[in-house]
Design goal:
This protein is mainly β and 135 residues long. Helix content is 0%, strand content 35%. It has two domains: 57 residues; 60 residues, no CATH class.
Length: 135
Amino acid sequence: MDFKVVGGLHGLPTVLATIATATVIEAGDLVTLSSGLIIKAVAASTQIAYAPYGSADGEVKIEISKGNDFMLEGTADANFAVTIKGTFVDLVGTTNLLVDVGESTTDVFQVDASENAGTAGSTAKVHVKINKPLI
């Protein structure tokens, strides 16, 4: 699991979407669209959604997040600093996806501004909100 939901006023609203053939998405992965089908997100993804339950090879549908009225917790690629609170940052990685706290090119995330945003000097438990949701 790359990410987990750690907050949201109304839970996690989801919709069913069609997944690409022979695609495996693990619970907690971030996803994007390719030719209208859901695939696992990569660093270059410009819009993303969260897959709370995942999907096995051979399945044709996957449940993905709708909107961005929830907070995710993930691991950063570098130590968290309080100066990044509220900033727009990217996704990095292919197999294991991380919060790219040093980049703001695609701006798919916004770092939480609260006291729970992360721990200075640690890469673990960084809280972000999807800034550019698929739906």
